[in-house]
Specification:
By secondary structure, the protein is α+β, with helices and mostly antiparallel strands. Helix 1 runs parallel beside helix 3. The chain has 4 helices and 7 strands, in the order H-E-E-E-H-H-H-E-E-E-E.
Length: about 130
């Protein structure tokens, strides 16, 4: 697969790369989603992830439902429907297993808060939420 094909599959634009970080903006079911690849070279992304990203996109709505369910289970008093699904993140270090869905919560005193739900190669979610502030 080539970069252009991957961008086409994701409804993508604005491919940016520096050192070992690549990102682009995609359009998934009418939602703008950031695709972030940390630790990967372009050749690895287009050769290793093209087919897998297609699988993620085909299952995107179900993955979102599962992720929101995990968040709701741990934050019972919160309205998870207002969370903005903003990112699909791949990190070569494995800190997010194979990939994570990232939800923008909003601004806090410490910075912008995101909740990340990790998924494995079988699209099974980890019940632990990763909290990140940028």
């Amino acid at each position: 697969m080539k970069r252009e094909e991957l961008l086409y599959i994701c409804g993508g634009k604005d491919w940016h790369s520096n050192d070992d970080n690549i990102c682009f903006t995609g359009n998934v079911y009418g939602k703008e989603i950031n695709f972030d690849f940390s630790g990967y070279k372009e050749e690895e992304i287009v050769s290793d992830f093209g087919d897998f990203i297609e699988v993620i996109l085909k299952n995107f709505k179900q993955l979102d439902i599962v992720a929101r369910g995990i968040i709701k289970n741990q934050h019972k008093d919160e309205d998870v429907d207002i969370l903005e699904l903003s990112d699909i993140i791949f990190d070569k270090s494995g800190c997010y297993d194979i990939f994570a869905l990232g939800y923008r919560v909003g601004e806090t005193q410490a910075g912008e808060l995101y909740l990340l739900i990790k998924f494995d190669q079988n699209l099974l979610a980890d019940s632990d939420i990763v909290y990140e502030v940028y």
